[in-house]
Amino acid sequence: MKIASFNINGIKARIEALSDWLAGTDADPVVLQEIKSVDEGFPRGHFEDLGWNVETHGQKGFNGVAILSKLPLEDVMRGLPGDEADEQARYIEATVVGERAVRIAGLYLPNGNPAPGPKYDYKLAWMERLRARAAELLASEMPVVMLGDYNVIPEPRDAARPEKWVDDALFRPESRGALRAIRYQGWTDAIRIRDPWATRGPFTFWDYQAGAWSKDDGIRIDHLLLSPQAADLMVETGVDREARAGEKPSDHVPVWVRLAA
DNA sequence: ATGGTAGCGTAGCTA
């Protein structure tokens, strides 16, 4: 089972680039972030015709997450627990039934800028809720993969120019500390352990502005965290960097892990 | 130091 995450930055604008990428990969399931669409606006039929099961959790204009899966999905859960008043669509969970059942959590963590401020407070509160949910998922003792756009640069080597991010919500100590606290519950950072001593990258996001892609001025903010039961099944992981060079690309590229499941 | 781009939705917010 090859599990992938892709922040597509708008399903309407990205239907072609997404479909092209899907046609060239054996990823299944795929979690999407920033669909920027209500559930009724998502081109569900386009993907169903290609054999995908489609589960969305959208909202008008911003945010929104989804799961595409050719394998059967069970027990779909929408929204991150812990705040009934939170109306932002940033979290979806489901069980994917392959050779084994794997619980996947697709997430779009708040950006949090400008920091400090109310948006940063919301980010940190959201991360505390994610920490609580992550602990519950670990307690299930299932293979679990929590993946998506975390909007956190874990370490200086995860940015081409770390000095320009020091005051940014993606790199401030509280954001990094909150991600570290989750990781040290017992999660494995799949992309990082592929090349644990790397001094630079791999990057998953390049801003549209200021020629960031052509200068390789990227950051690593899309992550796959694996429970111990999932990490034991891991056989391969990667970043589909070439997706950033295509026609009308997203500012993120897909990240993925293959499990013997 | 500033401005640089993109998406949604059709102004201004979000990133």
UniProtKB/TrEMBL annotation:
Cofactor(s) the protein requires to work: Mg(2+)
Domain Endonuclease/exonuclease/phosphatase: 4-252
EC code(s) of this entry: 3.1.11.2
The keyword Hydrolase belongs to this UniProt entry's keyword annotation: yes
Keywords: Hydrolase, Magnesium, Metal-binding
Keyword Transferase among record annotations: no
InterPro entries listed in its UniProt record: AP_endonuc_1, Endo/exonuclease/phosphatase, ExoIII-like
Leading EC class: hydrolase
Pfam families the record matches: Exo_endo_phos
MF-aspect GO terms: double-stranded DNA 3'-5' DNA exonuclease activity
Protein name as catalogued: Exodeoxyribonuclease III
Gene that produces this protein: xth
